[in-house]
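Reopening this one. Same input as before:
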Amino acid sequence: MDGAEDECSRSQRVNNMIGFRFLSIGNRLPPRRETPQAPLGRTTPRELVWCPPLLAVVMIPFVLPPPATGQNATAVSAAPWRYITPASLPGDARPCLSVYGKRLQVSGMERTTLSGTYTTSTSVPVTITYQIPNSMRIDLGGSAPRSIIFNGKTTTATAGSADETLVESLSDDSAESYFLGFSSGAPAQWLGSRFRTDDGKAANYTGPLYDIYRRIAPAVSVTGNPIRQKLYVFDSRTKLFNHTRYKIVRSGQPVTVMVTYPTWTKSGTESFPASIIRTENGQQVFSISVAAASTAAGSTADAVFTIH
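Same output, byte for byte:
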């Protein structure tokens, strides 16, 4: 037991060094499916404090090298990709895909359009057009309307700008990015299910429960394609995507980023985010309230994602 505790402590220190302190060490990983689940809050011999394995910290970067940079693409990326199937996902992620909808699984629904309000210090109308596998256009209204385009390789956003942050939040930090990673060579590692957010001592815990996945991969919408280690977090009860959490360094200082998708709406078979919020070190950077959502067949003929 002492050896296990020592390994746990070492793993926790490694995670602290790389900047992830998402859950307190009191949170427990419930028994796996082959073992009957104990009532929530009760300690069983198999219900141990979870600590991530040391190997996982160094394993993934060597599997997935960063893509080439400096390309001057002017049209939608033609990189091959595959529609997602439940069989292409690990078992724990399949219910999440089922709740999300069919638009990553079948042809004719490749383009999603969200319209609503984008709020920073002021509020302006916004239309977000996303086309799988990884193209995005953000049209901002107001007194100084502008468009931000990411065509899968190149973005019109200035390096380090708020526009570039917005593109990363809506593309790489999304449920679509998590799911499509399994077909594009950037799969996420399952860390565990039904994590609690308290110290694990309450017998009648009623707070949120989370399924957590970790991915280490290039942020392709960011200048220089920096390697990011991100946690993709799903609600254990509803299986809806809840948030992405990670750390960046800005002006030599660490910044904890959290992009939250706290509410969703249902239309037919599809679930769409109703709100999106980005915080940095706990302070809100922007929020998006979605008023309407739709899907359509993908196309490059209309040049929506073309950078001139």
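So the earlier flakiness isn't reproducible anymore. For the record, The helical segments are 2-17, 54-63, 94-100, 162-170, 175-180.
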